[in-house]
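Support reply, case 0932

Customer input (verbatim):
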Amino acid sequence: MYPNLFQLPEWLPVLGGAPITSFGVMMLAAFLTGGYVLKCGMVRQGHDADKAWDLLFWAVIGGIVGARVYYVLLNYPRLAADPLGMIFSRGGMVWYGGFLLAGALVLRRIHTTGLPMGRTVDAAAPGLAVAYAVGRVGCFLVGDDYGRPTDSWVGIAFPDGKPPSTATSIAANFGIDVDPALIEKYGEVLPVHPTQLYETGLSTVIFVVLWSLRLHRHRPGWLFALWLVLASAERFLVEFFRAKDDRFFGFLTLAQVISVILAAVGVAWMTRLRLAGDRR
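Our regenerated output:
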């Protein structure tokens, strides 16, 4: 784990001594990588590269604000107890919140600039997959969003995670009853499923699939709809291994419910495009 890569020099005004976190660096890398893939797709379609970076700007704004707002609302007891501390703390971002707000802002920008909606979101689909893969590396480095305790060979301990993968912390933060045999074998700090790496690997596979299909013969928008289905399925499966405390729907988490809805939207979208006929 490398939560902080380095600290800025003390003599710098305002930011002197502030840490440069691995999560922040990887989040920046995720946006830039996704933006570059989007630019390649849009240039191939005959559009100016600046339009891709314009869309990326709105994706950054919506992604950061939406992810933060979702996290704050999801943790409303802490918000009620300490509103200012919760709102202005550095930690806490949720992917789906960022995706939903960023998606709304980007779609609006595509509409207002007169870009072709279907072709533009198709160009964005591979970039979304690779950006998600890169971003999850940041979660791994900071020790966040890990999975349930495990005795398997894939288990990784996060003694300084956010929160630490200790038996006490896991029980308190996620309401998980830890197997006493695991505590007896490993002590207080437990190995957990590295779900961040699961998502990085699966999203990389999704990127390869989408990239290989970028010249598809279906109607515009088909590739983006396929990404919705694949990304939602990936998140739905990985959630079963995640250490979570938001299982408001029986054994399903809120993220899984959202995944089902988005996957259904993707399937309906693909079906509608297929019934409309291929482009050629």
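We compared this against your earlier run and they match. Two observations from our side: The mean pLDDT is 88. The longest strand covers residues 4-7. Please reopen the case if you see a mismatch on your end.
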